[in-house]
Every structure is written in structure tokens, then in C-alpha cells.
Amino acid sequence: MASQLNGSVIKAFAILDLFTDARSEVTAGIVARELGINAITAHRFLKTLEHVGALVAVSKGVFRLGFTLVDLGDRVSEGGSLARTLQPILDSVTRAIGEASMATVFSADMVVCIAHAHSGRSLSVDVRVGTRLDAYCTAHGKLWLSQLREAELQRYLETVPLDRQSPHTIVDRAALLEELEHVRRQGFAANDGEREEGIRAIAVPILTRAGRMVSSISVFGPSFRLTDEVMERSLARLRAAALEAEQAMYGGGKPRPGEGP
């Protein structure tokens, strides 16, 4: 599989990943230092990305993200039928519970936010569309991992380090596998400070008629607000929301494994 990958494309996206809210500009020196390549190669990558519109030069040797990326982002938004379907459902969940909610997909071993409803309350968690989160320490991620085939899950465990994000992160493979089996049996996943201490979340899957998971939705917020009682109410509301989403996407009743596609 690795032989089918293009290293230059991977490197180009690694350069784009260097841009953050705190870093709006990069230089060849920054790229060389962060990615471990020489300055000449870094400069060539930057000029190539400028040529295709992914970057713009704001001064000699200094680059910012270009408008080609804005255009591509707009196309993703316009074509995101799943996100469009889920957004009003998330808005309803957040109004009912009073806490933030989000929907995700699973991509490149990480959870990616595709829709999000803000709670408008203080001490909210900073998540936005496009945010990527580790799978092993999030409610969404544990749902996705619980759905992987055995070989896929084994590959994940062999390639993704289980770094300790908080005192509550599961970093033992056997313990994580036990947790995923528990998630699989109960049909939902919870996170109690595993990614960030003091933050709780609960997530449920959205399934096709054949029972394949296509997205997950959650409620999340500070632990002192997401009490056990609120988590129980959130779970009930999320399950109803998942059923609403499944009916909107596929019609009829709740999808069941073994039914037609």
C-alpha cells in the first residue's frame, strides 16, 4: 500500500498543515525546520504550491494560504450533503440539552468534525468543522474503532501511538480493546476526560440500512455540567436524533444489519 503513495503530495499537505490560527505565514526556513528537509527543497515546494494557488507570497520568501483552498473548501461545503442533513439535527440536540454537539466521519485514522452546533455557554470546547481528533481517546473515535474489522483495528493499533493526553487516557492496548468491545455491545461511547481532563462526551452512531456506520453524533462539554443525569438525557436525545438522521437519509424505519442497502 505504501508504494502506491506519492511522497511529494504527502509533503505538500504537511506544509499546508503548518498553518494554524497562531501561524498565518510560513517561510522556507520554517518548513525546513518543521519537516526536516533542506531549505532548497522547502523553497521549491512553496513556489509550487504558490503556482497552483494553494499559497500566495505576501513578501519575499513569506507565504500565506491561497484562495484556491477557499474555493475547494466551499466545494466541500456545497457538496456536503451529510453535513447539511445533520446540521439542523445537531442544532435541535443542542437546544434540547444546552450543550455543544458535533458530527464526525473517520478519515486517515482520525475523527474529523463535519458539522457542529455551539452551545453559546461559557467554558465551551473549541471544536469547528474540519477539526481532527485522535480516535482512541474520544467518544466518537471509540465508536469508529469499534466498527473496524479485526485486521483494520490491528493495523491501527500497530501504527498509531496511544499517547497519554490526560491522566484518564487509555494507553494500554488490551484495555482499549476491552473498552471497544464494551462500546460495541452497548451501541454508544462515552469519554470522561480521556482527551482533556474536565471534559465529558457521549456519542452514538448513524447507520445505513445494512448497519454500516456512516457518521457519529455527540454531546460534549465540561464535566461539572455534564452530570450523569445530563449524560443519560443526552444519550436518549442523541439516539432519537440518530434515528431522525437515518430516516432523513434512507427513509423508513431505523436501519438494521442484514437489510438491503
UniProtKB/TrEMBL annotation:
In terms of domain of life, where is this protein from? Answer: Bacteria
GO process annotations (BP): negative regulation of DNA-templated transcription
Q: Has keyword Nucleotide-binding?
A: no
UniProt GO MF annotations = DNA binding; DNA-binding transcription factor activity
Start and end of every IclR-ED domain?
Answer: 68-251
Pfam families registered for this protein in UniProt = HTH_IclR, IclR_C
- Taking every annotated instance into account, which residue ranges of this chain make up the domain HTH iclR-type? 6-67
Listed SUPFAM superfamilies: GAF domain-like, Winged helix' DNA-binding domain
Q: What keywords are annotated for this sequence in UniProt?
A: DNA-binding, Transcription, Transcription regulation
Is Metal-binding tagged as a keyword? no
- Tell me the protein's name: Transcriptional regulator, IclR family
Q: Which organism is it from?
A: Lutibaculum baratangense AMV1
